[in-house]
Amino acid sequence: MPHVTVLAFVLVAVAALLVGGGVGLLLGLRSRRPGRTRSRTGGTSRPRDRRDVPTLAELLQRVFRSAGGGTAVLAPSGDVVLANARATELGVVRDGRPDPRAWAACQQVLADGSPCEVDLSPLEYRARRPTAVVATVRPLGDGFTVVEAADTSEVVRLEATRRDFVANVSHELKTPVGAVGLLAEAVLDAADDPVEVHRFASKILRESTRLGSLVTELIALSRLTGAEKLPELAAVDVDDVVEESLARARLSAEAAGIEITVDDPAGLKVDGDRTLLVTALVNLVENAIAYSPPEASVSVTRRLAGAWIEIAVTDRGIGIAPEHQERVFERFFRVDPARSRATGGTGLGLAIVKHVLANHGGEVRLWSRPGTGSTFTMRLPVRGADVPETDTPELPDPAADAGRAGGST
To answer: What is the pLDDT along the chain (409 residues), one digit of tens a residue?
Structure first.
């Protein structure tokens, strides 16, 4: 509710209370006068019982209680005159008394006559919302004040995410750009040594490729998070997505000595964008290759699970600790930063997978056990199927996937 509307309502409500309910009494007296209502046809109907019509004071109370924000009116003594349920939820009022910070702000407002803002966020850590509360305190005159509070937890979280993202992007871009500059200087200094020139030039190529990949994935992520309109979804053959993804990941697998096994075609179809789905699956396969030991295997399987189509990528690598599993889909989060940089990872691949699946009405799930391996599962609605809101099938297990995956690429 806008502040002006709430303030106007509170002014009227307090005035009504201070007058002693005069308006309510007046309406109450009028409500006792029976009257006849004229029908649309010109006749008269039976007397209407005005006792069923709420008084102005009652209507004001209803508006106050249904306000979206936490609103409380405080008397000059600090007593709570009025407070809605939301004010209690946000901590403006506790056990019938105002939060000490809110009361201190009210005293300041009464002293200088100007509205002010006060942070009423919980002092102790809370895993559940609200974690951040901001209130505006305004004078009502005659020593009365109104406190209007709002839950700003989501705003605070998004701002923190934005700051972290900007800081991470700056760092990630600065590293390869700086490396290219230093390597270029090294090439100039070793201009008369072909062997050194070749060595430094190879490093420049590797860093420029990494920089190009980072920029490309940043653009893709920006597109997926709403900066650009997504293409229209069409019928996509899941087998084609798997085939193209494995073809694109084959060079990485061969370079790392990783064997990729895949199950038989399933003939499944989804509504989606083929390019985006291939990008997501390639990211999962490349991630599995990067975190697998040499001579290990990565399996790709697909199956129909109710109203969902699942494409699972399983590795037998180092696995992911439970405390990291919720964060692996965050931008730039790395379980092992040194390993990611060595393999050229940007830290954006799994974030892209998450957003691709979300834009297709699906999700990505993770099963992992340290020392055993990990399974990332892309879940997409079957084409034309009604997807249930609550569906929690058992996640694939690496051992089971190894048995289902037959051939190799």
So the answer is: 444 444 444 444 544 444 344 334 333 434 444 444 444 444 555 555 556 778 887 887 788 778 778 999 999 999 999 899 999 999 999 888 999 999 999 999 999 999 999 999 988 766 567 889 999 999 999 999 999 999 998 888 778 767 766 776 676 677 678 888 888 888 888 888 889 898 888 888 877 877 776 777 677 666 666 645 566 788 999 999 999 999 988 888 888 899 999 999 989 999 988 888 998 999 899 889 988 888 889 999 999 998 999 999 999 888 888 777 777 777 666 655 544 444 555 567 788 888 888 888 999 999 988 888 899 999 999 886 554 444 444 444 444 444 444 454 5
DSSP tag of 295: T
Report the CATH number that the domain containing residue 211 is assigned in CATH: 1.10.287.130
Burial class (CB in 10 A: 0-12, 13-18, 19+), 313: buried
Domain extent for 74: 3-151
Beta bridge partners of 380: 309
Residue ending a domain, choose from 229, 250, 272: 229
Q: Measured over all CA atoms, what is the biggest interatomic distance in the chain, rounded to whole angstroms?
A: 111
